[in-house]
Amino acid sequence: MVHVGSHETDRPAKEHANTAGSTLIEVAEVNAGYDNQRERTRLIALRDISLKVTQGEFLAIVGPSGCGKTTLINMIAGFVKPLSGVVKVRGVPVDGPGADRAMVFQDYALLPWRTVERNVEFAIENRRGHVPKPERRARIANALQLVGLAGFEKSYPHELSGGMRQRVGIARALVGEPEILLMDEPFGAVDAMTREAMQAELEKIIAETRQTVVFITHSIDEAITLGDRIVVVSSRPGTIREIIDIDLPRPRFDERNDIKRSARFGEIRSHLWKLLSDEALGAKWGSVARQEGETA
Ligand SMILES: Nc1ncnc2c1ncn2[C@@H]1O[C@H](COP(=O)(O)OP(=O)(O)OP(=O)(O)O)[C@@H](O)[C@H]1O
Ligand SMILES: [Mg+2]
Predict the structure, then answer these.
(1) How confident is the model at residue 283 (pLDDT cuts 50, 70, 90)?
(2) What is the Cα–Cα distance from 216 to 72, expressed in whole angstroms?
(3) Which of 46, 110, 228, 249 is most exposed, with the fewest beta carbons within 10 Å of its own?
(4) What is the pLDDT of residues 182-231, one digit of tens each?
(5) pLDDT tens figures, 108-156
(6) Do 184 and 71 sit in the same domain of this protein?
(7) Residue 246 sits in the same domain as residue 195
(8) Residue 294 has pLDDT above 50, yes or no
(9) Is residue 254 situated within a structural domain?
(10) Where do the ABC transporter domain residues begin and end (predicted)?
(11) Over 50: is that where the pLDDT of 10 sits?
């Protein structure tokens, strides 16, 4: 655990998630990658990843493109299996997707033949512990309201903008009220103003529901404003470069919105910039090394 600077003053209002509560997600000594059957090569995406996420924690993940962030979150979701090591939720090895985890995908993953409300309903229709129809309706309406899509219930995905599609994905993840929210660049396709409004909304929802969130982003500011901790992943093969505690008070979105102007915010931001620009340069050199014959 690395602390940036020595400030210990601005403790969060919420008890710090890293020291309170129990471990909900554990990634232990995980290597991950993909086999190319045709060329008989194996691409190593992640190397030796060990990480614990505490119940109620908001964990942000940043790192250069292609470093394995989506691979990591897909392993927690149960869509991808590690090559070695183990991912556990509540101490039980993950063996596929489950209703306790919901994913907001980087590429939306909507069903094009279904309307907005039917896409959201998808998350709760085939559940054990059947949700009765009237309650389903209310929950769908509530989720769409939260992401600002009320009035678009009957629209089809092709009739929406990229940002609106992404918001359908978020509503779909929220509607099932999962214990764990897995979000892969969920605000990547929305404009800056909407993005900030949605960040604030997400912070509010999480404060209420106490959901645990794993959140991938390319935005340093977003990681700092939302995260309890930030995991910095190195360029591929991704390793954990550093884990940074974000000791800023909550709520971080207030009327005056002065968190971003605080000295501590600036300090963390410059530290992250430095780390990530090192990694971006590393990625360039890495691609040269790969041409020189990298395999597994
Ligand atoms: N299904 C797959 N089959 C083969 N290789 C894959 C597959 N998915 C990802 N990869 C490779 O694994 C590496 C990590 O990919 P991943 O999608 O996890 O990166 P990322 O950090 O999410 O990148 P980005 O920030 O661009 O979304 C990349 O080199 C990618 O080419
Ligand atoms: Mg990705």
Answers:
(1) low
(2) 10
(3) 249
(4) 999 999 888 888 888 889 989 988 988 899 999 999 999 999 999 999 99
(5) 889 999 999 999 999 888 766 677 888 889 999 999 998 889 999 999 9
(6) yes
(7) yes
(8) no
(9) yes
(10) 25-256
(11) no
CA-based max dimension of the chain: 61
Query: Is residue 113 in a domain?
Result: yes
Q: With respect to residue 236, please indicate whether it lies within any of the assigned structural domains.
A: yes
Helices (H), 210-260: 220-226
| H/E segment holding residue 207 | helix 192-209
Q: Is the pLDDT of residue 287 over 60?
A: no
Place of tokens 């409004």: 197
Return the percentage of the chain with pLDDT > 70, whole number.
Answer: 86
Q: What's the pLDDT at 11? A: 36
Query: The domain spanning residue 275 has which CATH number?
Result: 3.40.50.300
Q: Which 3 state secondary structure label does DSSP give 84?
A: strand
SS3 state of residue 23: strand
Q: Whose CA is nearest to atom 26 of ligand 1?
A: 65
CB 173 within 8 A of CB 110: no
- 96 Cβ neighbours under 8 A, 6+ residues apart: 78
Domain boundary (160, 177, 194) is at: 177
Whether ligand 1 lies within 6 angstroms of the CB of 68 is answered as yes
Sheet holding 23-36, edge to edge: 41-54, 23-36, 84-89, 92-93
Cβ of 235 less than 6 Å from ligand 1: no
Which pLDDT score, from 0 to 100, does residue 285 have?
55
pLDDT at position 260 is 87
Ligand with an atom nearest the CA of residue 279 = 1
11, 34 contact by CB (below 8 A): no
pTM of the model: 0.87
Whether 224 and 269 have beta carbons less than 8 Å apart is answered as yes
Q: Is 236 in the pocket of ligand 1 (CB under 6 A)?
A: yes
- How many degrees, rounded to 5, is the angle at CA 4 between CA 3 and CA 10? 85
CA distance 14 to 132: 35
Residue with the smallest CA separation from ligand 1 atom 24 is 65
